[in-house]
Every structure is written in C-alpha cells, then in structure tokens.
Write a structure and sequence with these properties.
Order of helices and strands: EEHHHHEHEHEHEHEHHHEH
Strand order of the largest sheet: 5-4-1-6-7-8
Distance between the termini: 19 Å
CATH class of the largest domain: Alpha Beta
Helix content: 40-55%
Strand content: 5-15%
CATH topology of the largest domain: Rossmann fold
CATH architecture of the largest domain: 3-Layer(aba) Sandwich
Structural class: alpha/beta
Length: 253
C-alpha cells in the first residue's frame, strides 16, 4: 500500500525547543567566564547563521555545534562546548513543551485515518531527538528527516525527496514551509496561532483566500526574508490556513 504522507515542521509548529531561552544563555555565560568582552556572542552566532542562509548554505546554517566551535576558536578561548549535551540537560518540563494541548491526540487520529506522518525539520537530529523523546512525540512519526541525515534543508524542496509523493506539509513559516511544499506539489498548510479573530471565524475552506490574509502573509514573508516585498509570490499562498493543529482533522477526514 502506498503511504499517504503528511509532513510537519517541528519548531514553532509542534513544539518549543530550549535553544533561545536556555541553551544559548548557558553558552553565553560559559564564554563570558572566559572573556567578559564577548557578551554579544549569541548575536554573532545568529549573524553567522543568517549569513549562511543568505549564501544558500542551508544545511551548514543549522550546524550550531560548528558555528559555536568556530567562534570559540576565532577568539582563542580555551573552551569546549558540547551543544548536544546542553540541549539534553534542558529537556525538562518548562524548558520544552508542546505548543498546544491535545497535539498527541491529533497525531494519533491522523494515523487512525490512514495517514503516515513524518517530521521535516531544519534542526539537526542530535538536537531534535532528545526534545522529541522527552515530549513523547517520537512514536507518532514514521520518518524524522533532518539536514544532517539527508544533506538538504528547507527551503530546498529536496527535503521531500526521501518520501516522494506527499499529501500535505504543515508549518509556521512561509519561506521554509509553504513555498517549498507548494513547489514540491504538496498541499501547503500554514499554521498561524496569531490569526485575527475575524479570520478564525471564517470557514476553514474560505480562510486562505480572504483578502485580509494576503497582508498578513506579505508581512510575514517580508520579515522572514528581510526584504520589503510588495507582492506575494504565487508559491507563497497556502492551500489552507489553520490556527490550531486540531483543525487538521477537518481537512483530512
């Protein structure tokens, strides 16, 4: 039987990882203990990340271990930082969490309806798996696709190549989720938990074509691309827009 794949982004779509609030601050503290003048080290990590994205080095852009090691070597710090171990340390309640109640139930119901689920994330496996395991997510997915495993990262639509035909992809970013999903030929479903109440009240099948949504998409894509866009590319328009994952059960009957 052919698998009916539904793929999900991870961070910002299903879960909150510990990087921003816990991992980066701990690394910053360790670096500042060696050199108090390097208080802006996290900003430097992020700048290098963005620089790699701008150069289309999508896989390398998410190699935080290498980015941080390069920084410590550049500044001649006698410091060995194991990012993976720091992530594992912070895989505790409060530091990581699911973004909605009932997410596991939604995933289980989709599987009962005959769909096969996969994660497509730009986070490296060694950073994502500890979080997924701690949150109880791992058993619901037949494939977990990461850049270090396949040599591709979003927005390169090659991330879908491992699966072949994909029914739909769900994600919170226009540039990294909606555009590559549309390009691949999957139904691109945008989750935006900050939708205005007026849009939430509109029927699900009409929401993606509402005029108000176009301004929201344009602003979101402009922030993501750091370019002041005047028009929405055709491939940036989602098939459907949801404000909670539970709404997927109204799409995939």
């Amino acid at each position: 039987m052919v698998n009916r794949w539904i793929t999900f982004d991870l961070d910002g779509t299903i879960m909150q990882n510990p990087f921003i609030d816990y991992v980066f601050p701990e690394i910053r503290n360790a670096i500042c203990e060696e050199n108090r003048n390097l208080t802006n080290c996290v900003e430097s990590f992020v700048a290098e990340h963005r620089n790699r994205l701008n150069q289309r080095q999508y896989v390398e852009a998410y190699d935080w271990e290498e980015i941080i090691t390069s920084y410590t070597q550049l500044h001649e710090l006698n410091l060995l930082i194991n990012v993976e171990e720091i992530v594992k340390k912070h895989c505790v309640p409060g530091s990581i969490y699911l973004l909605e109640e009932g997410i596991l139930g939604v995933l289980q119901e989709l599987k009962l309806r005959g769909y096969t689920l996969a994660i497509i994330t730009n986070g490296y496996s060694k950073f994502q798996m500890p979080v997924m395991n701690a949150l109880g997510l791992t058993p619901y997915f037949d494939r977990i696709i990461t850049p270090d495993m396949i040599g591709y990262a979003k927005p390169d639509e090659g991330v879908f190549m491992e699966l072949g035909e994909v029914v739909a992809h769900i994600g919170d970013r226009i540039d990294h989720d909606i555009i590559p999903a549309n390009t691949w030929g999957a139904k691109a479903i945008w989750i935006n938990r900050s939708l205005p109440e007026q849009l939430k009240s509109i029927k699900l099948e009409l929401r993606a074509r509402h005029e108000m949504l176009r301004d929201i998409i344009l602003a979101k894509l402009s922030r993501e691309s750091q370019v002041n866009l005047r028009a929405i590319p055709r491939e940036a328009i989602p098939y459907s827009v949801i404000y909670k994952l539970e709404e997927l059960l109204d799409i995939f009957l």
